[in-house]
TrEMBL record:
The keyword Cell cycle does not apply. This is UPF0056 membrane protein. InterPro entries: Multi_antbiot-R_MarC. Belongs to the UPF0056 (MarC) family. The chain crosses the membrane at residues 12-34, 55-79, 128-150, 162-184, 204-224. GO terms for cellular component: plasma membrane. It comes from Gluconobacter aidae. Keywords: Cell membrane, Membrane, Transmembrane, Transmembrane helix. Pfam families: MarC. It is found in: Cell membrane.
């Protein structure tokens, strides 16, 4: 049984966006540090914090998806330039995650724990937006991916269908973040440090390929525009 065109387009765009967002956010790797940030806290408080972090992260992703391209366009930045820049940012971030996962973990730990102040905060909910949602969960790399995705609508797909699919992927990602953070201690116990780093490196490899693909689409766009201008001349 074939899917309706609109549903098929939405599913296709979801399949494009979700792996990219999952790879850059890497909730399994982040759960190691989230577990440290909430160590010794009441179970109900941890679950509520995970939910708020996920909602804040979703808000950041949706704003980046729906308005990121428009904001950059307001400053005269073309979609192809955005794709090349976003591809470079994503690829470089993935390369660092792939070769030096310990460095990436240390940076995220510094963002989340803020030199130990996060753990000693009387009300952990005060940290639900900063630093746990941004920049720990959704940082510059994730925002770059979201904006790059919003500017990468396939040629034969309606823009509305594509944006619905990408937004659905962001929503799914937020649900994953909420669940994984809420059960961070169990995830850490199940995977361990070594297992989490293996997953992180696999995610980094996928992310590197996505970054190269975004970069290639930007270069292709510039070449197509140059050919059209040459023919017109």
């Amino acid at each position: 049984m074939s899917l309706a065109p609109g549903l098929g387009n939405t599913l296709s765009s979801w399949l494009i966006a979700f792996p990219a967002l999952f790879s850059i956010i890497n909730p399994l790797g982040a759960s190691l540090i989230f577990a440290q940030a909430t160590e010794g806290r009441d179970r109900r408080e941890v679950v509520e914090l995970a939910r708020q972090v996920a909602l804040n992260s979703l808000g950041i992703m949706l704003v980046s998806i729906w308005f990121g391209s428009w904001i950059l366009g307001f400053f005269g930045i073309s979609i192809n330039a955005l794709r090349i820049t976003g591809g470079l940012v994503v690829a470089s971030r993935a390369w660092l995650m792939l070769l030096q996962p310990e460095t990436s973990e240390a940076r995220k730990e510094k963002q989340a724990l803020q030199g130990g102040r996060t753990v000693t905060t009387p009300d952990l909910r005060e940290t639900a937006f900063f630093p746990l949602a941004m920049p720990f969960t959704v940082g510059p790399g994730s925002i770059s991916v979201a904006i790059a995705l919003s500017s990468s609508t396939p040629p034969n797909m309606p823009t509305a269908d594509y944006y619905v699919g990408v937004s659905a992927a962001a929503t799914t990602m937020a649900v994953v973040v909420a669940v994984v953070y809420a059960y961070a201690e169990r995830v850490v116990a199940m995977l361990g440090v070594t297992g989490t780093r293996i997953v992180s490196r696999l995610a980094a490899l996928i992310l590197l390929a996505i970054g190269v693909q975004i970069l290639a689409s930007g270069v292709e766009g510039f070449l197509v525009e140059a050919l059209k201008q040459a023919k017109a001349a």
